[in-house]
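Sequence dictates fold. Below is an illustrative record:

_____
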Amino acid sequence: MPYVSNKGSRIYYEVKGEGAPLLLHHSLTRSLEAWTDFGYAQKLVRDYQLILIDARGHGVSDKPHDPGAYRTDWMIGDMVAVLDKLGISKAHFYGYSLGALLGFRIPKYALTRFQSLILGGGNPYSFRTDEEKQFLWQLQEAMRTGAERGIEAVVDFLEKTAGPMSPEAKERVLANDPQALFSAIKALGEWSNAEDLLPTMTFPCLVYAGEADPFYAGARECVDRMPNGTFISVPGLGHTEALYRSEIVLPHVISFLAGASGES
């Protein structure tokens, strides 16, 4: 199994397809398998070399219990370590939720390693609004309950907020270490605001969010400060539902990537 080591943790990754490299970073509680479970990888692999990683604390990567292990610079460093291992100097990036929150912070730590960013279900403002703070609190409580009573509590929370999961997706979540997830969400709540990085994002950036997503207002607003940003609204969908509905999102993503890659 392919791993790289960074800051004391082994990070698992997979590579699929050929073409311009595209690194995909999943959301909290998921794994790299989510990109297949929800139908993204099957379409994107036709034109791109997909670099899929299990974030630290997820999948078959190491799962530290110390919240200090989930610093943004370390997690972005995990991605850079994978690119270095593969000999890739620059890639496109696609992150959802946790992946997007990291993506907004890429310019601080890895500005030259990515040629475009696709950021779904997130914004750079570090839980600024009451709606975002409530969302964070709910996640933290779900992960706290999971750490105390078992990972099944996290599955219950996800299904109550976004509907039933497929057996495959549920199995992926149940495979998580609940204490690692709790440590990750505690750390995430302390990440600093990345608003000042927006003007440095001069490469093509696509930001999108469901209209019912707590991150929606900030995602829409932040694009105005990006030199080369585009915002896509996903009507009627919440945070998790916008991840599930790849058939709605992918046409925008594929069109954006074609332009960012210089294709006609």
